[in-house]
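Justification of computing resources. Each target in the renewal requires a structure prediction run like the one illustrated here; the chain below, 76 residues long, is used simply to show the kind of job we budget for.
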Amino acid sequence: MVFENVSSLIAKQLKVAPETVTRESRLVEDLGADSANVMVLIMDLEDQFNMQVEDSAITTMKTVGDVVDYIQSRQG
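Resulting structure tokens:
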């Protein structure tokens, strides 16, 4: 469920086809995200999952799977 929500947000934010968003997709290299996209995406994720994403974690999230794993690790 987390992956579906994350991939949908990413596809909408980056204007890419949802089927191109996989766990292995790299946000910048594969999906064309820039720093502004990433910041908006983080804010959307925080709203969607009612959580706060730590600044230090943002720099470690390179793939869609990284984002999903981070969110899942924060959900009790």
